[in-house]
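new request in #modeling-help
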Amino acid sequence: MHNQSHSSVAWRLIKTVFSFYPVAMPIMVVCIVFNAIIGSIPSIFMQNVIAIIEQNWEHGSWSSVSGEIMSLVSILIALYVLALISSIIFNQMMAVVSQGALRKFRIKMFDKMEKLPISYFDRNPHGDIMSYYTNDVDTLRQIISQSFPQLLISSLTVITIFGIMLYFSFWMTAVVAVGIVVMLYVTRKIAGGSAKFFLRQQNALAKEEGFVEEMMNGQKVIKVFTHEKQSKQAFDEINEQLFSDSRQANKYANTLAPIIMNIGNVLYVVVAIFGGIFIVSDVQNISFSGLALSVSVVIPFLNMTRQFSGNINQVSQQVNAVVMGLAGARRVFELLDQEEEKDEGYVTLVNAKEVDGKLVPCKERTGIWAWQHPHKSDGSVTYKKVEGDVRLIDVDFAYVPGKTILHDISLYAEPGQKVAFVGSTGAGKTTITNLLNRFYDIQKGKIRYDGININKIKKADLRRSIGIVLQDTNLFTDTVLENIRYGKLDATDEECMIAARLAGADDFISRLPDGYNTMLTGDGANLSQGQRQLISIARAAVADPPVMILDEATSSIDTRTEETVQRGMDALMLGRTVFVIAHRLSTIKNADVIMVMEHGRIIERGSHEELLKEKGTYYQLYTGAFELE
Amino acid sequence: MIKTLAKSIREYKKDSIKTPIYVSLEVIIECFIPFLIASLVNDIKAGTSISHLVYQGIFLVILAGISLTLGTLSGYACASASCGFAKNLRKDMYYNIQNFSFANIDRFSTSSLVTRLTTDVTNVQMAYMMIIRTAVRGPIMIVFAFVMAYIMGGKMAFVYLFTAPVLGLGLFFVMRKTIPIFKRVFKKYDNLNSSIQENVKGIRVVKAFVREDYEMSKFENAATSVTADFTKAERILAWNSPIMQFCIYFMMIFVLTVGSYTVITSRGMDLDVGQMSALLTYSMMILNSLMMLSMVFVMITMADESSHRIVEVLNEKTTIDENVDGIKDVQDGSIDFVDVNFAYSSHAKKMALSDVNLHIDSGQTVGIVGGTGSSKTTLVQLIARLYDVTSGSVKVAGIDVKEYNLDALRDQVSMVLQKNVLFSGTIKDNLRWGNENATDEEMQEACKLAQADEFISRFPEGYNTYIEQGGTNVSGGQKQRLCIARALLKKPKILILDDSTSAVDTKTDALIRQGFEKFIPDTTKIIIAQRIASVEDSDLIIVMDKGKVHATGTHEQLLANNELYQEIYYSQNKKGEVLDA
């Protein structure tokens, strides 16, 4: 990821929001401009009114000036009404746009995330991915809805006021300008320090969060080892660091406003005194208006000075939000710039029926699936029945270039066969299954599915034809029934229940408080690991795929329950090509062929009986003379 | 609730009191400045001498300097007070959690505790900062600005009595409408994030079932619903700014018309030009204060929910009395269960354990078997007093466990939990949990006994190998053996292994048990296992079923006459396939 500068991130953010709302954004900008300018011009009216008073206050006759003053005030009222209308429009639109932009960002990020390859999720800690949604997007809210508009308003106001100042008097403007430069310098200094410590505070907070998470997870271990005292000490250290960083950050932030405001006050006094000096000493005024220096010029000047410093104060209050918002935006764009999973497959999965001994594609579900294979060379389309014949030929694979995990893997699984893998952790068993459904792509060799190179098959269709049950079950917040239906979205309730019965899950599900309609939350936290595995087996069963991968699918089911599930599992595996990975040898004994893997190679292969006769590694494993890790 | 929270202010009480004092003084001076400037302006108009102007100017600059000093002091005190308060809140929560019993821990999920310690505390910290600073500043500013305006402008100051309520009422209605929406939407928002988390964790399932589009549309709906609520709230909030602008505009026009009328008709007696502009300044001060106060209310509402969640943790009382003055000496490792009944909560319909009567001699090896949910774990947890019995009693060395000092008891009853955790740190760091002062030799000895020494010494950095958070860089079997070694280092009188060798192969498993017999013969060893092979040669085997002791006896006795035991045994050792190791 190339490192983007602050300004390029800011530009991209603005451009993205504009592209979300191509009509609303320009309207809003117009409203802001209008509002900012109107906000600055009352000083002109004030000058006029005061000038009138100046000339007339001594004779005390209201009627002689009321006409003049009232017409000025009416124009002002008209302008104010317009400003109010534009302000209402702007604020209402901003509410819609800022929230809408966040929504679009979230959806964009989520869509992107779903399209990223598995390797992305394997590489990045899940906490980091979550943080895009929980922390980074939220920082965008303030920068979009407040910081950017505020910056725009303030800079416009400052420019307008500066123009009006010049209209009144060059000399006075010069005095204000010197003050502003001082103010900007101080703001830069303090706000810079403040931003630095705010980022530090964020880091300290993240550190404390990580620590607390680890400790809360192991709280029972802490209790068992009466380790409370040490745990408190370690916490205090981290907590103290967070305290000192956040105190520092807040000290800066808290003092910024009084400092700016009081520089404003001093500037106010200085302007007043210089005004007085200029008037008293009768300095020749230079201005666009050609007005002579008088109280009626100095008073609006004083108000403009206040407005000036007020705006700088407003901007300085946004500095932290901008720094954090841009850091958040940078991370969000980093996610959005990730490369998506590529799919160049063109062979698709279709429903088919046999007409006159030939396969013909059709819309309805027939139970027969076919590979629709368009041939680029002659434009013809052939159909091939999906049977579940899987072959790996001389496959090499590495997650990280140079660190080959699998060497020369060749294996054939005929339709309906059960192929088992045994071997230590890291031997490459799960890696093989990762290659079959193309979570990762092989570097060398071939994988053929019903004789077709799997790279030619559309990934979605390839995966649809391979059911998978993993050791770490992942269930979703929904009812048990919907979790099973996840395997096949258009499955009827009946079909789901049949699948549950097949998986041996029906028994415990019917004992849950609401049976199949029991809500599962927090990844099925209210179920035991074994029960969750049964549900995920049912989920795969309802999908009814020709090929199945069971990766430690029954590891948490106790042996006695496994016995009872076994019949269902056998029924589930019947007529499918099945790849089984299991630690427990009893689970794989009846496989057609067992592959014993070590360091990414297949070192033994054969049926249970054959391997026992061989008296090799498998024999040792089975008799307990060798250990799996 | 506030009382409970306030207890955590402690050493930051001084700063918490200083802040509003500084703020009040700062506000008073701030209110004086426009007043003085008004007279300065009038002096300019009257054409006073420059030296007089400069004197006045210097006086004003000094005032600004004092105001700045007070502002800085209040800013510093406020940062200390609020950050310190937050620090103490986190500390008090964390310390109280350390006192939680297992029953307490079961009530809170890890993620909810993490949120309470981080996000919730941050919310309260922000609210506290606003309360001691902005909430003090606002009302004082309003009162003083009004008083000053009255002194200068007389009746004209009463214009504030019109505009301030308009703004106040407007803000009040906005708040009343938005607060309930915010409360509702934050819950929805949490759900949205937890559904993202499910997707991140379950991405393999999503991709394997080709459910990317399905998940996307599900997410889009959820996100849209959250946005709809947020937008609704924000659109109401968006009225704040126009209402404020309306009041400012009204005030400007009022001062310009009525002000100039007053100046002219009274020939500058009731009001002069300088005062007129000061009036405008005061009006801005008052309106700004109202605006700030409304922000304080928003912050307090947001912090309200968080405070409740924090107080829940602070007020959680441990369910187990530590019995600090209890017996500190555990004589031996004998265990008795006398008419023990146990339920996890007082309103549970079913007892997790009922009518348990057992006697275990010191130094015996005891195996416990039984199906999932037969309360094997529950049974052994009572020995280390991780939970208290509902009725009956559990005795260690003939004395009720409640009579012991809790720490002393747990030091002698070492338990290897089923769901075990290693912490980030070196292997040595982890082992030292068992005994802080363990020497390298002692550690190696324990690891040898747990059959861990062999693989540890194969690591390039041996005992200094860094274990990642959650022990992700060691295999399941290795992790289990490290956990056993850690428990052994305590040199306990009773050692409990709760399914702690499930990922260890049968041979190593046997070696561990043999080592126990040989090197720690006087320690009572209780082993819960799935595999019959792991308990076969125990002195006593307890078969648990549905929360009851189904049978006890030796392997031979049980195999001869207990049906359940036979069933378990044959499910693992099919006839004709039993191989001798």
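bot summary: Chain B touches chain A through 163 residues (CB under 8 Å).
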